[in-house]
Amino acid sequence: MLSAAADDLHRDSKTRIKMKGLAKHLASVQFVSDIGLMYDVLQELSSLSPKLQKRTKRKICVLETFIENPSEP
């Protein structure tokens, strides 16, 4: 679709160049890899989020400890 827009002579040259660049970026291995990584991270967060939302006394204490005593990298 972007390739078709990049070749559309009814569009101005600036727009066609943008479309070619965008199509190239979206098809790059790095971009596709980054999307895969984001998908994996979001899957983990979707699993973790409901667990963290359950406010048990123990979890609150653990999280407060993390805030008070952050670990060194």
Q: What does this 3D model show about the protein?
A:
This protein has one domain (2-68). The mean pLDDT is 83. The longest helix is centred in the middle third of the chain and has 25 residues, at 29-53. It contains 4 helices and no strands. By secondary structure, the chain is mainly alpha-helical.
Strand content: under 5%
Mean pLDDT: 83
**How far apart lie the N and C ends?**
45 Å
What coarse outline follows from CA principal-axis ratios?
rod-shaped
SSE string, helix = H, strand = E? HHHH
Radius of gyration: 23 Å
Task: Specify the helix fraction band.
Answer: over 70%
Tally of DSSP β-strands: 0
Count structural domains: 1
Class by helix and strand content? mainly alpha
* SS field, number of helical segments: 4
Largest sheet: none
User: pLDDT below 50 for ≥5 consecutive residues: which ranges?
Assistant: none
Secondary structure topology:
Layout: H1 2-7, H2 13-26, H3 29-53, H4 57-68
Q: Could you give a quick summary of the protein structure above?
A:
This protein is mainly alpha-helical and 73 residues long. It has helices at residues 2-7, 13-26, 29-53, 57-68.
Q: Which structural traits does this protein have?
A:
mainly alpha
